[in-house]
Amino acid sequence: MENIDKKVDEKLKSFDNEKKEDILANFEHFKQYLGSKVELGEKMGLSEERLAQITEKVADYLAKNEDPKNREEYVLQQLWSVGEKEERHMLAHMLLRLVKKE
């Protein structure tokens, strides 16, 4: 599983700015992108718990390094910033459910 963490870290560091802007500019695009990555993770056999841990890592990166591009991202960033570790973990699970039902 460390290998997956490394890949996530590498992807976050090397993400093309133009593509990142495209994904984050519209909340529906963000949900579609996240949904496609969740689907890929499920096909790789990752559990919901593991997907939530990866989602936490990505959300933490976004909260620290990206300005919200829309109202939805602003709300998520605010919730993330006031949440305790357990609450952030629950929010990650809720994000997974949100993109799975799309």
Question: How many strands, what sense, and barrel or not for the largest sheet?
Answer: none
Instruction: Return residue spans where pLDDT drops below 50 for at least 5 consecutive residues.
Output: none
Q: H/E order of the elements?
A: HHHHHH
Rounded to the nearest angstrom, the radius of gyration is: 13 Å
What is the first-to-last residue Cα distance?
Answer: 27 Å
Helix content: over 70%
Structural class: mainly alpha
Number of strands: 0
| Average pLDDT, all residues | 88
Shape: globular
Q: Could you describe the 3D structure shown?
A:
- InterPro entries: DUF3243, YmfJ/YflH_sf.
- It holds the Pfam family DUF3243.
- This is DUF3243 domain-containing protein.
- It comes from Planococcus liqunii.
- The protein is mostly helical and 102 residues long.
- The protein is 83% helix and 0% strand.
- The protein is built from 6 helices and no strands.
- The protein has helices at residues 2-14, 17-25, 27-43, 48-65, 71-82, 85-100.
- Helix 4 packs across helix 6 (85-100).
- The longest helix is centred in the middle third of the chain and has 18 residues, at 48-65.
- The protein is globular and about 35 Å long.
- The model has no long low-confidence stretch (mean pLDDT 88).
Give the topology.
Layout: H1 2-14, H2 17-25, H3 27-43, H4 48-65, H5 71-82, H6 85-100
Helix pairs in contact: 1-4, 2-3, 3-6, 4-6
